[in-house]
Amino acid sequence: MKILFLALLFVASLLSLSASASTVITPAPTPATPPTEISKDYLPIVSAVKEWENKQWKNQDKYWISRIDGYLESYAPKSSIKFYVEGGADKIDVTEDNGFFLIGTIIETNRNIAMREPGQFDQNRRAWLLEFTTPEDTSKNYKLVLNMYCKQKESLCATTYGFKTQMDKILPLFVR
User: Fold this and answer.
1) Nearest 5 degrees, angle CA 105-CA 107-CA 112?
2) Residue 29: what pLDDT?
């Protein structure tokens, strides 16, 4: 049964990845050797990722979540999650200064929000750092939703792509 579930996740990930902008997801180092900082090695892994975008775009130009570094799909209860999220775009840099914002939300599969955290933009890394503590309840199923959007009305992001445009990624989160 577990093999069938993993096979279905693999097929779902292949079907749901966007052809125009794929996301590279790199796992965090193994817990046995805790890192002093999150890995800067970008090795892609297969993950059940879904994308969604709203319809308020000004034109065909887009931005997207381009890289997720340090995220694992499975964590122990009440453990720390720390990872970076980078954005890509057709026309401008995806940075907080240009009006972009990122928020992460852990959601139970029945749609209850377990926790929500804004990303902290790291100017040196040019990525948002997200930090969570995983839920304690292992009997529930969770997912992590990343929302990247144009937050500031008069920003370069809003004038280029449209105010409140949004790109989401939905990642599996297993608490065991």
Assistant:
1) 120
2) 45
Q: How far apart are CA 65 and CA 96, in angstroms?
A: 14
Q: In angstroms, rounded to a whole number, what is the distance separating the alpha carbons of residues 99 and 156?
A: 6
When pLDDT is averaged across residues 115-140 and rounded to a whole number, the result is: 93
Residue ranges of the domains in the chain? 2-175
pLDDT tens per residue, range 47-70: 445 555 566 677 777 899 999 999
Question: For strand 74-75 and strand 127-133, is the pairing parallel, antiparallel, or unpaired?
Answer: unpaired
How confident is the model over 5-24, as pLDDT tens digits?
Answer: 333 333 333 333 333 345 55
Measured CA angle at 91 (ends 169, 58), to 5 deg: 70
Which tokens sit at 41? 């090695």
* DSSP bridge partners of 131: 82
> pTM here?
0.70
- Which of 101, 86, 97 has its CA nearest to residue 38? 86
Cα 153 to Cα 173: distance, rounded to the nearest angstrom: 33
Task: Report the run of H or E that residue 80 belongs to, with start and end.
Answer: strand 80-89
Question: Domain 2-175 has what CATH class?
Answer: mainly beta
Tokens of 155: 């920003």
Q: Would you give the DSSP letter of residue 2?
A: H
Pairing of strands 127-133, 142-150: unpaired
Residues 12 and 169: their CA atoms lie apart, in Å, by 14
Count other Cβ atoms within 10 Å, centred on residue 171: 20
